[in-house]
Structure formats: C-alpha cells, structure tokens
Design a protein that fits this description.
- It is built from 1 helix and 18 strands.
- The protein is α+β, with helices and mostly antiparallel strands and 366 residues long.
- Strands 5, 6, 7, 8, 9, 10, 11, 12, 13, 14 and 15 form an 11-stranded antiparallel sheet that branches. The chain has a 3-stranded antiparallel sheet with strand order 16-17-18, covered by helices on one side.
- The longest helix is centred in the N-terminal third of the chain and has 55 residues.
C-alpha cells in the first residue's frame, strides 16, 4: 500500500543542534587558522631577529679579518705629550682614544663605551686598516709640505707616471686623485710614512684635484693638530727632522671602522637598539636592528691571559692592543615586537672568535 512521504522539516531542536555543531566546527577552524597565523608571525619575528644577529656577526668578523692590513706592526702614533690635545674617538658619546701609549693600534678596545643596556654593559671597538682599494697600487709620493697656521698643512703629491710599477692595477685606473684613480676625498684618513719608518695620521679637509694638493686643516677628530714645537709626538709636524720634512715621504689611505650600539627607543621595554658601523668620522650607518648587547673580549699573544674583556695596558703590564691575537665577539638580540602566539619577546645570542691575521704575533707559532 502506498504511503505518502512526510513533508515535515527539521525540528527546532534539530536545527539548534545543527547550528551548534556548525559553530563548534567553525570555532575550531578559526582557532586552527588563528594559531597558524600566530605561529607564522612568531616565526617572522624570530627570523628577523636571527638575521640581524647573523648579519652583525658576519660583518664584524669580516672587518676583524682585515684589521691591521698594511698597518705598521706597532700601530700609528697619535698626537700625545706636551702641547697636544686628546684625539676624539668616533662612536657613542664623547670619548677619546687612550693617551697612555699615544698609538692607534689595529684594534682599539672600548669596554662599556656603548653604555649599560637592559642591565648589561655593551662595548665599542675601533679597527684600522689600509683601504682595500689601495692594496696593490703605488702609494702617493709627497713632493712638499707647507704649514700655514689656521689653514693647516698643504701637501703636494706626485702621482706616479706609470700606474703599473711592477704591479697590476685595474684598467680603469686613470692616475689621478679623482674617483677613477686614487679616489681621495675630504674626510678621508691618510697615513704619512717616512723613509725611516716614522708614521703619523691625518684627515683630509680639502682636495685640489687640478694641482694634486691635499689640505689637512682643522678636523673633527683633532688629528691634524700642530704641537711638535711644544714637545708632542705623533703629529704630522713631528715627522720633521731638524725643522725640515725628509724626502721620500708617502701617503696611503687608511680606513678606521667603529662599531657601537645606539638607542632608537629607550622609553619602554623592550628597548630598541641599533648596531652602528662608522667609517672614519663620517655619518654612521645602521648595520642591524634589535641588537641589545655587544661585547668583545680578547686573547693575548703571550697566552698568559685569556678572554680579557678590558685589555687596558695600565691594568695588564706588557699587554697592549698590539698583543691581541684573537677577538671574541658576543652579541645578543631581542625582538622589537612580541610573538603573538606566545605573547613574549624573542631573544637569542651568538658568539664567535676571530684570529687577527695581520697583527705582529699571528704567525709567531707554527
């Protein structure tokens, strides 16, 4: 017997159960996707911080490998003694280079010079080396030096007639002071060298490319001060012998690189700090963000002290910056924003050690 189909729809209870079930499923789905989004954001935060950390260590290590390249083993003398003023040190705050030895070494430590950051002291470090573009090309010969009081030193240089005196230089090198040749500019640091092996450091303040003349006047670091008449050593005028500059003096371009930390937002945790890299006394460049600790420690060539964080020659007799054989670099990072999934700020640390290949004692032991 035929039985008609019922036209009755879903009851209220069935509808409510279906809605509840759909809500639960959607809720679980939203929670799942929200978790994925949070995990993705957290991974992004960690990746950004770790990349800053790795990039910082890589760049510092690269510069440390080059520290001391074609620099005299004992360093370059700085003006010191009677009549001199302290040479200003680039970096954080108002600091000066140490005057106890009157020498700018390949590496100048700077314990705590970046200040106390989030409860931890942070350091600064200064490195010097011959500019990489000057390796393999002839140095500039000095033909005359004159001093005109407030104007400073006027140095006439002789550019070699041949750009290839036994060495190979780029084919584009045009034997001028300009950008396609030696490429010297105001603000560059130059190392003076005499035939007898004396050295001094100066900062170019003006270049006359037409007459091949460099001026070393009043500069931002006080390198160009004249004080030899009052008994100081290490200045440009102290290179004189019996009141005259010796023949055979040369000039070479020197790079001075300083690393330090700078605060960008020190108002609310997490404090935001930037690793800065400064060439000579030019405007510093931000290398990496989210770096909140920068520390250096040092091994010495005699092996009596290891991992000394503040190698001050007055505290460690016989050990100065010239005896550093290894630099231990220790950086840490903290994210500028919290990880949304955990609600916490991400932090990490990375350490490495770099053997300074260009210093005096690096090949002392086989």
């Amino acid at each position: 017997m035929f039985r008609p189909t019922s036209n009755r729809g879903l009851g209220l209870i069935e509808l409510l159960l279906a809605v509840l079930l759909a809500t639960v499923v959607l809720g679980l789905a939203f929670e799942f996707f929200n978790g994925l989004e949070g995990m993705s954001q957290s991974v992004g935060v960690m990746t950004t911080a770790n990349q800053s950390l790795q990039a910082s260590v890589d760049l510092i290590s690269r510069d440390l490998y080059e520290a001391g390249q074609s620099i005299p083993q004992g360093g370059i003398p700085l003006p010191s003694g009677p009549g001199s003023v302290s040479v200003i040190r680039p970096g954080a705050g108002a600091n000066y280079f140490p005057t106890n030895n009157g020498v700018l070494s390949a590496i100048t430590p700077g314990a705590d010079l970046s200040g106390n950051i989030d409860g931890e002291p942070s350091d600064e470090i200064t490195l010097i080396m011959t500019d990489e573009n000057w390796l393999g090309i002839p140095v500039l010969d000095i033909s005359s030096v004159t001093y005109a009081g407030g104007t400073g030193y006027n140095i006439a240089v002789t550019i070699p007639a041949s750009c290839q005196p036994g060495v190979t230089v780029p084919s584009s090198f045009d034997c001028t002071l300009g950008p396609n040749g030696y490429n010297v500019n105001p603000g560059d640091l130059m190392m003076f060298t005499t035939v007898g092996g004396l050295n001094a450091l100066g900062m170019i303040t003006q270049v006359n490319y037409a007459s091949n003349t460099l001026t070393f006047g009043s500069d931002s670091l006080d390198l160009n001060q004249a004080c030899a008449a009052q008994g100081c050593a290490g200045s440009i005028d102290s290179l004189q012998n019996n009141g005259a500059y010796p023949s055979g003096m040369t000039l070479a371009l020197v790079d001075m690189i300083t690393y330090y930390l700078e605060a960008t937002d020190n108002s609310n945790p997490p404090h935001q700090y930037v690793l800065m890299r400064q060439l000579d006394d030019a405007t510093p460049n931000a290398v990496a963000y989210e770096i909140n600790s920068l520390q250096f420690s040092y091994d010495f060539s005699d092996g009596t002290d290891t991992d000394v964080r503040n190698p001050n020659p007055t505290l460690y007799p016989g050990q100065g910056s010239n005896q550093i054989r290894t630099v231990l670099v220790d950086l840490s990072t903290i994210s500028n924003e919290p990880m949304s999934y955990q609600g916490q700020y991400y932090s990490n640390a990375l350490a490495t050690s770099v053997t300074i290949r260009n210093l005096e004692y690096v090949n002392q032991f086989p």
